[in-house]
Amino acid sequence: MLRWKYPNIYQMWDVPFRPGPQERHRDVMQRVWYGPDEDRYLSPWDGHLAKLVVQCTQDIYERLPKNSTYRHTFVRNVSPIYLLAANWPFEGVSTEAAKWDEHEWTMVCLKWLPACTWLLCVLLWSPNAAEGQVRNGGWYDPFPYRFWGYPKAATNIRENHRNALAYNSKRLLERILRPRWLCFLNKGEKGITLKEVTDDVADVEYLMIAYTTKQFDNFNDVDMTELHLIAEKAARKAGVDAFWVAGSCMRDAAQMEEDVYRINDVVRGAHSLVIVVGPSDERPEMGSTEDMLRQWGERVWTLPEVLLSNDKHDINIYTRGQDDSPWPISKKKFADVVWNDPLISRQLVDHYNKTLELSRLELVSIALTCLLSRERGYHLPGDLSYALMGLLRQRPSIDKTDSLFQSFARLSIANDSDQLLERLVCMLPKEPMLAEDPWTKMDDQWDCNLWDINPSCQVAGICNDDTVLLDGAFGAAIRWKSFATVAYLKKDSWKRLGARTLIHGAPLYFVIGCVMVGVGATYEQFGISTLTAVGGFFLAASLCVILASPYLVRLCYSGKLWGTQAWFFGFEGYMDLATIESNIFGAYMGRLKWSPAGSTLSRHMSNSDNECVGLDPTTDDEVRAIIDRAVHSKVGEPKVYTIVDTYTLTVTMFTAVRPPVAVILCGREGGMQRAVMCSYDWKSQTLYRETVLRMETPILERMFRVNRFRFGFKRPPPNI
């Protein structure tokens, strides 16, 4: 398609969005725009919402169907016309003249005179220098974003909506120091009495009776009778006066829900833990005590019950229908005997047994990993987080409207968990496409742990749709529609100064020489031969300069760069360094280099001097296969993109589902910055993580901070 605005030629998407109502967007300049659902980005030029056009390699531009929801255009050569003309004779030959063969010398000579003529016309028409324009003082293009809404819960209560001031992310659930009700043993050999715990019996010793509703139904009188008989037997054998069982001891209807999440306090105060198991109608094949105990251990709530139990007493296992003595299991052996993740869960057991000290960050991350591997109930969406909060000191109050992520975020904010959420933002899960809740994946494609990352941003609030408000990050916009001429700084020399003077003076010398020779020839009868001689000198000198102009231009604009205008250029697909550099700087002069460890596709090696050198990722057959698959990938499948950083002169190739429009620096790790590459959902003003790259720290010197922004871990699929 054609349009007046640059780029003038582009291809429309072939996967349109479904028709829907007009969506509203308010930009940083407070302009309100209404439009249909489609891929757009925030223009760094004036902050308006512009159509997303992505330049791509020729194989992607020519493929059918396009399988994309955004517009495509081809890659353009934007190098200055000076350099295009000067480098034209050297296209297709080695950068070292000593290695040219006879054919290459012939091609250079045949192109030399046309190139000289081309340069003469360029110098006559546009004598200005070939450098690009300096913008933003040499800094990267800013990302012109501003979030205009309210969070569901701000970390500072004064920032909440007036109707939500009572909702505070730090509002805590009160702890209980003793159970409200207990089943007291009657004096004698049989019988129990359910009593409210008052001050006169506050110091009573009691057992904590643990069971699963899959084996003992709370609404089945026979099951409950059997459970209480076994509990009474266990209490009398342990020599205590009472026991606590969930089926009977949570009687206050007004506080029933909160009492469920205070069971951990009951466990902490118990004399010891008793587990009662029995046959299950759902799993009749589990007939042995060991199998029934493992079924009990599959539940989420069993983890805190065991971890918080008294380590001075063994955990006794009673089996329904068996009058034998209980099976005692020491707490430190429980993980190996019962749970399916003993290597992980044993670390938690040792921590609560005071034989191993975990940091706050390690405790939360390991506990969450264990809980995620267990069966969850479906009472509230945030049950997993509520099970986790029993292990922590600060407990946010229960909110039925919270999703699992929102409840976890409030738990993390309420506890000093060493910026857990901020660290999760910087992680790149190993299987992001398969994760329903990607924030629960605490593994990392870079094989780093949470504690290896130092966040440089802060969570300022919790928003709807499993998003958070982040503040304090540095960021920059990515230019996808085309490359641009890059301004750069070079150290001058007498050689370059002389070459520049000759090049820019050659057209003037040529014109002066022609005029003087013409005038001298016209008035030769008057004896003005000196004028002809001088004109011939100027003409000859200018022709010599013009004949040498390709070499002189390359002398002026080649060599090392001491500073460049900072840009992030992006394109879809793969091109080699020579092609990328030729499209930006006019020729391949070895300025750009592959990032050694910028993405999971990056490759590097040691050269003959034992120096780390970035390799072309396609030297790896596995990466080559990824590129080939991405050419024909469908919407929602990973595609290959490439980012060119003109400040550090590095090129990084990566995979993502959508082209990210912003580079957000949210932390650092291993001596490099964690750059979260984000796409933009303008309908909700949300930046979604597409992938995470590692970038060199000096880029911070050329970046602006981003206004407080709304961030999501996984973008919903497009409405197509």
Return Rg in Å.
Answer: 36 Å
Number of DSSP strands? 31
How far is it from the N-terminal to the C-terminal residue, by CA? 22 Å
Mean pLDDT: 86
Beta-strand proportion = 15-25%
Task: Name the shape in a single word.
Answer: elongated
Sheet/helix structural class: alpha+beta
Number of contiguous helices:
20
| Contiguous runs where pLDDT drops below 50 for at least 5 residues | none
Largest sheet: 10 strands, mixed
Oligomeric state of shown chains:
single chain
Q: Roughly how much helix do the residues carry, as a percent range? A: 25-40%
Report on the structure:
The structure is a single chain. With 720 residues, the chain is α+β, with helices and mostly antiparallel strands. 30% of the residues lie in helices and 20% in strands. It has 20 helices and 31 strands. Strands 7, 15, 16, 17, 18, 27, 28, 29, 30 and 31 form a ten-stranded mixed sheet that branches. The protein has a seven-stranded mixed sheet with strand order 9-8-11-10-12-13-14, sandwiched between helices. Helix 2 packs antiparallel against helix 3 (102-125), helix 12 crosses helix 13 (383-389) and helix 13 runs parallel beside helix 14 (404-414). The two termini are 22 Å apart. The model has no long low-confidence stretch (mean pLDDT 86).
Short structural summary:
With 720 residues, the chain is an alpha+beta fold.
Topology of helices and strands:
Blueprint (H helix, E strand, L loop, with lengths): L22 E4 L5 E4 L4 E3 L6 E3 L1 E4 L1 H4 L9 E4 L6 H7 L14 H24 L27 E2 L26 E5 L6 E5 L9 E5 L10 H18 L3 E4 H4 L6 H5 L2 H7 L2 E6 L11 H8 L5 H6 L7 E5 L7 E3 L1 H8 L3 H11 L7 H13 L10 H7 L14 H11 L5 H6 L28 E2 L2 E6 L3 E5 L2 E4 L10 E2 L4 H29 L6 H19 L1 H9 L5 E2 L3 E5 L4 H9 L7 E2 L8 E4 L5 E4 L5 H11 L7 E7 L4 E7 L5 E8 L2 E10 L4 E10 L8 E2 L3 E4 L8
Helix pairs in contact: 2-3, 2-18, 10-11, 11-12, 12-13, 13-14, 16-17, 16-18
